[in-house]
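dumping this here so i dont lose it
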């Protein structure tokens, strides 16, 4: 099997696509299967959007390594949010006034784009599985893939493209 050798720009574009795909899958779950998102779900969704936008910027202008570094940090934060959601928040009846709820409220994301960022469920309600795997673990897997891809951009050989 041949290894795929993408340029830093191509990798960032692929990462942007993965971030957008993560949000699309969350929206399909929400609107197609009535999976109501909690504040931790929305925080992860926001993180995917920010990663996608950063990757598009990094692909467009030659700031690929700094963008890759930021993506690694965001992917780690998104991973922490997914783990917290699974091991702590899903065990509580309410997510009100948690760290995630405070961030989403402070940014007024529900007012700006309610179809994308509106919190409609509690943490206990959001504890659902897809193919036997908790939804937040799918999110965790995607954050891990994004972090590894960002490391390949950050530590890979320099590319002119």
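and the seq i came up w/
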């Amino acid at each position: 099997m041949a290894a795929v050798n993408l340029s830093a720009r191509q990798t960032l574009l692929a990462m942007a696509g993965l971030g957008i795909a993560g949000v699309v899958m969350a929206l399909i779950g929400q609107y197609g299967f009535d999976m109501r998102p909690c504040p931790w779900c929305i925080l992860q969704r926001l993180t995917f959007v920010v990663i996608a936008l950063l990757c598009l910027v990094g692909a467009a202008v030659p700031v690929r390594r700094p963008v890759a570094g930021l993506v690694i940090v965001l992917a780690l934060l998104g991973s922490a949010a997914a783990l917290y959601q699974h091991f702590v928040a899903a065990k509580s009846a309410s997510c009100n006034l948690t760290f995630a709820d405070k961030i989403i409220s402070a940014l007024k994301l529900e007012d700006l784009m309610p179809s994308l960022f509106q919190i409609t469920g509690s943490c206990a309600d959001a504890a659902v599985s897809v193919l036997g795997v908790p939804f937040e673990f799918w999110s965790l897997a995607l954050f891990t893939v994004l972090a590894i891809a960002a490391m390949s951009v950050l530590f890979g050989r320099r590319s002119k493209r």
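Helices lie at 8-33, 39-60, 64-87, 99-106, 109-112, 114-117, 135-155.
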